[in-house]
Amino acid sequence: MGTAALHLAIDLGAGSGRAIVGQTGPSGLVLREAHRFQYAPRHSAGHLRWDFAALLEGVRDGLRRAPSVARELGGHLESVGVDSWGVDYGLVDDDGRLLEDPICYRDARTEGVMEEVFAHLPREEIFARTGIQFLALNTLYQLVAHARKGLPAGAARLLMIPDLCHHELCGSLVGERTNASTTQLIDVHDGGWDGTLFERLELPLALMPEVVPAGADLGVLRPRLQSELGVGPLRVVAPATHDTGSAVLGTPLEPGWAYISSGTWSLVGVERESPLVSAEVARANFTNEGGAFGTVRFLKNVMGLWILEECRREWDEAGQRQEYATLLEGVAALDDFAGFIPPDHPRFFNPSSMIAEVRDALAESGQPASDDPVRLTRVILDSLALRYASVLATIEDLTGREVPGVHIVGGGSLNSYLNQATADAAERPVLAGPVEATASGNLLAQAIACGELASVSDGRRVLGDGVRPRRFTPRRPEAWTQAARRAREIEEALRPT
Smallest Cα–Cα separation from 389: which of 289, 449, 474? Predict the structure, then answer.
């Protein structure tokens, strides 16, 4: 009798990654972390770039350590799959060599590019073709900026970050649907690259890879890596390679409920069977990204915990380290609201000082601009909760369907204050957890591809057997209704002109 098959999910975030071994079973999905690693972007060759060598070394170390973890769990490693953030890409030549480190989406090269694109192709037509929200960081605008400056000689294929990792693992040169959809270059109706966009914007369509669905078998781990890392001929499987696609797959969603994948970014949306493309959706700047196994992620990007993470980094650098748990205790002890900022304002995207930017926004709107880390944290978290509530209300308006509750997953699901504030601001129950929804969804896609699970519903049933989300019920709706009114006034006062 053979040992149980396990799978390795490599989950890449914007600066750090994790290798997690997982196994499906009667008691749910069993997860065990094998490795954690970092690869912060740094300035190189005129741009903010990802250190792709460091990223790949982390991936290799995860593969090297995973077999022993699998043995501890009583099984053997069967497959591996990589997910990551969207929009960023690398270029390889005919021999599959990466020509330059990928440029980070926070690089300044896309400033003003969106407006230049609109001069050639109206905003309304781009949305009608792609169904994707307008963000300056989208691959469309990155590629326009790249082509204008000059693509490197010998470029033969454009691969998104997880596709680039799969290429390194097994030689695959395809792109997976969920990540490809974030480029704003895919036809929302047929799922292929939109040739009209490439032609009108003079972009190189020949660089674009074949698009395959989540669950596609990409090949077998290169023999060289099998030898170097001490692993067998692992199957390389494309999960939902966009981390939010995996996170939604890894969420035991209640029927009709919204999800918030909460981390550096917060992705607030609902799962649909078909895209929703209309003038109203375009005005609200919602997006129709590809989901796992034929679904659509109808959602909106919210800035997320990036604002707080940057403030904490600055406090650390100033010798004023703020422990997360201590901050949240202080936040919960405050009697009243400390103020509001519009978290999606462009000023918070990548300022030289996030603390100064938050304080300036407070001062400019006539609010007290405190130096106290606890009060600033309260401002950020309350502002996020109110933004979530606003997006949820818009989802109901656009879809014509009630959203009875919200399921929060990812690292932000551990933030009890923000979970309760979201329940209060949205006047809906909140379920929080699992934290590892992205890795769970990645692993479920591999298990489905390997024939261990028959469908997404089977996978979510397995998840539900092992996950006990925490429930948060609305407690102070009147206070939050008044807060929302004040926040709208402040947002209007700070609206870019």
Answer: 474
Tokens of 137: 């960081």
Cα 469-474-479 angle, rounded to 5 deg: 145
Q: Which residues pair with 275 in a beta bridge?
A: none
361-415 confidence digits (pLDDT tens): 999 999 999 999 999 999 999 999 999 999 999 999 999 999 999 999 999 999 9
- For residue 444, CA distances in Å to 60, 74, 124, 215, 249 come to 22, 19, 37, 9, 8
Q: Is the dihedral of CA 341, 346, 347, 348 positive or negative?
A: positive
Phi, psi of 434 (to 5 degrees): -85, 155
Task: Supply 382's token pair.
Answer: 């309350």
Which of 88, 243, 344, 382 is flagged as catalytic?
Answer: 243
240-276 pLDDT per residue, tens: 999 999 999 999 999 999 999 998 889 999 999 999 9
Identify which of 454, 422, 408 has the alpha carbon closest to the alpha carbon of residue 248: 408
pLDDT of residue 2: 54
pLDDT in tens, 315-329: 999 999 999 999 999
Residue 304 and residue 265 in contact, taking contact as beta carbons nearer than 8 Å: yes
- Per-residue tokens: 287: 């997006």
> Is residue 243 among the annotated active site residues?
yes
Q: Do residues 262 and 305 touch, judged by C-beta distance below 8 A?
A: yes
Between β-strands 211-212 and 175-176, what pairing exists: parallel, antiparallel or unpaired?
A: parallel
Q: Please report, for residues 82, 147, 247, the alpha-carbon distance to residue 18 in angstroms, rounded to integers and kept in the order given.
A: 10, 33, 14
